[in-house]
Amino acid sequence: MMKKITMTLVMLIVTMLTVQAQTYPPKDTPQLEFALQLRVHIDQAFSVGETPHGKRIVIPITGGTFEGPLIKGTILNGGADYQLASADGSRTELEAIYCIRTDDGVNIHVRNRGIIYNGKDANGQPSFYFKAAPQFEAPADSRYAWLNNALFVCQPEWTQEFKGIVLNVWKVK
What we know:
- The chain is mainly β and 173 residues long.
- It has one helix spanning 2-21, and strands at 32-42, 46-51, 54-68, 71-75, 79-85, 91-102, 107-120, 126-137, 152-157, 164-172.
């Protein structure tokens, strides 16, 4: 029993020393690798109204296209972006749920959660932040299974010529 306690204490001390020896900030910064761009067609947004959680807004997803180095295809009609706006309108949580179909006929489910913040930064300056983290659900036996086993981040891009939203997606390496 005493031997077990001694070994546990030694391991605890080694762990504490290892934690203290780590550099701050860490030297290993995650890298990003461009994965794809989604050009999402949307329909007129509508409001569910004020709910116990905030103002609920729904933006139907009606189609579009996507393309990246390892994937290409269309966005299927029938999904939606479900947004929940704070009472003061400065913060919106979003959850877009839809499906995409690759050019070779593979269907992939997408759930994209994010935050839109339009307020002030730590210095009191106006700030706009819009980022999201899409999760992909591809068939495990498909050439797109790599989408199941990584984290992704995305950032929107707006252009005058495209009437919808463009999402640039990076894989976190």
